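Regression test attached.
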Amino acid sequence: MLGKSRAGIRALAGVAVMSMLLIAGCSSDDTATPDASGSATANLKMTFLPKNLGNPYFDTSFKGVEAAVADFGGTVTQVGPAKGDDPAGQVSYINTATQQQVGGLIVSANDKSAICDALKEAMTAGVKVVTFDSDTTPDCRNLFVNQATAEGIAKVQVDIIASEIGDAGEIAILSASANATNQNAWIEMMKTELAANHPNIKLVDTVYGNDDDQTSFDKTAGLISAHPNLKGIISPTTVGIAAAARYLSTSDSKGKVMLTGLGTPNQMRAFVEDGTVTEFALWNPEELGSLAAYAAAALAKGEITGKEGDKFKAGDKEYTVGADATVLLGEPYRFNKDNIADFQF
Amino acid sequence: MTTVATPTFASEVASRFGSLARSRETGIFLAFALVVIATTVKNPAFLFSGDGWRDLLLTPAIVAVVAIGQAMVIITRSVDLSVGSIVGLSAYLVGTLFVAMPGFPVAVMFLVGIAFGALLGLVNGALVAFGKVPAMVITLGTLYAFRGINVAWTGSNRINASDMPASFLALGTKQFLTIPVLTLIALAILVAVAWYMANTRGGREFYAIGSDPAAAELYGLAKTRRVLVAFVASGAASGLGGVLFAARYGTINSQVGDGLELQAIGAAVIGGVAIVGGSGTVVGAVLGAYLLLTINRALPVLGIPDFWQRAVVGALIIGAIILDRVLANRQTKRLRAERDAA
Amino acid sequence: MTTLLTAEPAALGRTYANFGRPAWRRLLFTREMAIIALLSVVVITASVMVPKFATPVTMGYLLFDITPILFIALAMAPVMITGDIDLSVGSMVGLSGVTLGLCSQAGLSIPVAALAALAVGALGGLVNGLLVTRIGLPALAVTIGTLALYRGIAVGLLGTTAITQFDKSWTTLVKSRIGTTGIPMVMIVFVVLLVAFSIVLHYTPFGRGVFAIGLSKDAAVFSGVKADRTRLVLFVVSGLMAALAGIYYVLYYTSARGDNATGMELQVIAAVVLGGVSVFGGRGALHGVVAGVLLIGVLSKALQLVNITSDVVSIITGVLLVGSVIAGSVMNWVQSRRVKPALGPAPSTTA
């Protein structure tokens, strides 16, 4: 009867497939034992994992990473999910880095806790984890390199928009993704700042563009059509502010709805010149990337362990680790018509 | 012997008007009008401001163009899942060419986009028509392959709006007698294709192949060639969609067009194109696209968090296909009754 | 007596067991064996050429990554064998995950929340099945609609937030491995389900009915197969397996989001078709399906380890998919060319 022999062959085939994997899995002598700490040559292979690829802000920070890596003689690869707002995608790349046993992993987190377990496994396997730009919960990384304090970043944007709309009126926020740690930290600080110092400004809406240009563009259009009395938009994401500026510059709301946020000079230059945006803020992502890479190298070489008070060198400058294993880059910088020509990133 | 009353001019007009009023397309248009009216009541700027009127007509234009091609494929009882990836590739090609040759004439760029899309559609069509393999699987494979090529080609770059010539970007918002230029382009394509589908032999053959492929083959229709043409047309429409995207949004990364295939299929199905093929019009597909995207834009104004937009779209699609089935059943019953009565 | 020559079955892409060939040829020259052979080649090449591929750690990560697809593919295979399709599975993964997250957040224990998620999956499958069998709508259209609807409900319920706090003991359990082998514990669940599905599909009358429906629905009905009820059951099972995959996904990634697993349905269908199931229905086997899923998983993992990005994997998946169906079609054409001359000229017709 055809049933028995065919099913028998099928069962055999299934067992063969699974056992092949088992054999492949168990046969190798290359197991994932962590590198002995204090080894003679430090593992300076780095993996750079931004929130997503194709984001100009992260591309610029990668330039800084590459320069730093060339300086201390390591190697680095950039990997990441293609779409914005994809913590599960980041987990996959973190696992790959763990298997590849890199020396350091530099990551900007899409979600505060979703990637934590994968990072902890990486750290157990001996990989040094440095978060930059967007943090995770402190127990899943060795160090966090922050561009500026959350309060400072929030305050500068609120100050700019308040001065542009006469300190009264409706504003909205165009954010990146709803789970990004840094976005949520900054928005919380903005709300605190508004409540404390700007009682006449009302935050009417927060929308999410997911760091995708088309989504941010369409969400800006949606904001303006849903809130006819809107006077200002804050967009603390470089993709968002660029898309919003582009929409505003060809709409009737140019000059009536003010826009500010965190943007890169190259993307915003045209809009500053045509008057859509008067002033915006950022820091230098290249310096941020470079600092993160030097921090990862210092950890990999065993020079620091990430506790408060540790000092390490990044290029010619020395940095000290602060509370919560955080290193600060500096203060945000305000860009406007007068100084934008001086910057090329 | 029964006498048949000679139709008078008045009764002809009345019956044409009646069938128009009962047609699916009119229903969709009424739904669209309803959504616009409801939203305008809440916020008059939705329709009556310069931006509002422009966005109403402009934003759905890209999906509308892709839906035209998709409708042609669905009518032949196939489906083209790779349209989103073709839009992405075409948009990136346009951007890359403009970056490399800033003086490239804009009109020629449209032709380049259409030709490129047609070429990709030819790949699909050849595999489906000559390989005699199900279109869904082939276009699923090309969806992956084309998107992968797009991401590989893009690397971690993206084309910025500032890299594109100002004249091209201006097309994205330019208006001619208050109608956006991109919408006019979509309308022109619609008129041409609708006329082709309704009035030429080639167009009617699409319907024949979709209604009953076996009968069409036995009748001697060049089924392979027609299916090939349908896929080439869908590819060309997606290529044009990519050019329109580049003009409207300016910034192009590797994810452009992601998920567009489901929007296009949804627009066609809502617009009356039956998924089993053989019925529906491209006009319906375009109206479906306008309805879908206007609902998306209207939800935030109406105070419904736009997270619910996809649920609304899904409910609409299911409603549309149930309606199609109910109407088809009723028509079958009516035809049977007529046949039995005669 | 007139003899009507109908289109050869081979042209429709369906193959039948040809008992004219010896057993070893019949059993080894199948689509499934071809995929398993390809899988073996890829595994061996990767073990040799990719450093750190053939380690328990990597194997473990690979299996963790493809577990949701494995679960759903088990149920998608019978659905496609009957000639239907279920595009809403990815959205159901998201919706069931959201259900799990919301119930867990509301204080229910994980097992109870998981039951709620499974119930949601079964309900979604039931809706699909009723629309297809009772109202008679084409499965492709219905599941495109429910794909949007379920995803929309999932995203609508959670908005753009995510629930990331779950009972530690359960998340650790889901992430644990068997001893030192690196194989995830959830593989035990999968193997049990695989055996159960294989037995039902290949040994029971219900399973034979599934194949019969795919080959010819009318003939199956006339043979006594309850076609509509079978299809309904298969859709419900598909929803259940998608919900199971959703529960796993949320507990493994510790994150319930409305847009989890977007696009997963296409990955499942690609793997299932690669594994030898015909989209027209009527043929397929689970060992091929498992091999198809593993093949795509192994390729992705191996390429990821050498830092080749996911786009190359996409291209390879797409080409493999197209290639496998074209190869099937070419083989059928070759077979029909070889068989035709042997049949001799068609008998002449006399009225």
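Expected vs. actual: identical. DSSP finds ten helices and 14 strands in chain A.
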